[in-house]
Amino acid sequence: MAMSIYDRAKLGEVLRDELIIDAHAHMGPWYNFHIPDNDAAGMVSCLDSAGIDTIVSAPHNCIGPDYRAGNEEVHAAAQQFPGRIVPYVTVNPKYPQEEIEAEIARWDADGGIKGFKIHPSVHQTKADDERYRPLWEYANEKGIPVLSHSWSACKFGGPAILGKLAEQYQNVSVLVAHSATNWEMIDAVCEEAKKRENLYLDLTGSGLHFRALEVMVDRVGADRVLFGTDIPFIDPRPGLGRVVFARLEDDDKRKILGLNAKRLFGL
Does the pTM of the predicted model rise above 0.90? Predict the structure, then answer.
């Protein structure tokens, strides 16, 4: 009988034969964190050691000082490491709408867009603000995911706001970042996800409450939960351990670790 994912991981085995896709990654430095090996090569080295096949990445540059330079950075990294790094496209709603539309058109013409990442808190703009509309409309037309930063107390992109967007743009898979940060967040996101089949729960965070993953799967199903880590902002290995050691069936773990992301991003 084949050994379970739990038993193999317990022995220290790297799960190289399992598909593992980190759907919430970044790249580069952040102003108040020490982040070693934060470039593409350093991140891929970390992925190799952990057995992670692919990351979907939005550089810190995207959500901070220069979204266009960040988009260029991640697309260059994707060319350098094909199949290992998949780009998110990020827009900053503080810029004129014609510039945002031009940025979306640029990457659409460059080979298409696999997904968008927005950070309403850093941008100090609600996720449903009119200035984000070109992004949501493009995503709805193309049927691609949008990952949004969120938090239980986030007034810019909380679960209720993202739930309404999922209802409005039903051809978009709306990925709610940091869905497991605390029980308030877990309860709110699960309630929204029960009402909208295109709302997904992202596990990214520095912590995960005891047995929270099992609760989330019980409430919304393993098809609606995505593995993510915030690499290189956060070391990905503890996040991986929270999934492989969870009290879940291996088929559910495989969906969370990679199969759901493969389906949503068309990988």
Answer: yes
Phi-psi region of 7 (alpha: psi -120 to 50; beta: other; left: phi over 0): alpha
62-98 pLDDT, tens digit each: 988 899 999 999 999 999 999 999 999 999 999 999 9
Cα torsion 19, 61, 181, 121 to 10°: value is: -140
Residue 90 to residue 106: CA distance in whole angstroms: 12
Are 119 and 63 within 8 A, CB to CB?
A: yes
Q: First-to-last CA distance in the chain?
A: 30
String of b and e for 183-205 (b: at least 16 CB within 10 Å)? eebbebbbebbeebebbbbbbbb
Indicate left, alpha or beta for 124 from its phi (over 0: left) and psi (-120 to 50: alpha): left
Pairing of strands 85-87, 225-226: unpaired
Chain segment 17-35, per-residue pLDDT in tens: 999 999 999 999 988 889 9
Using alpha carbons, select from 154, 264, 141 the residue that is nearest to residue 199.
264
How far apart are alpha carbons 117 and 241 in whole angstroms? 25
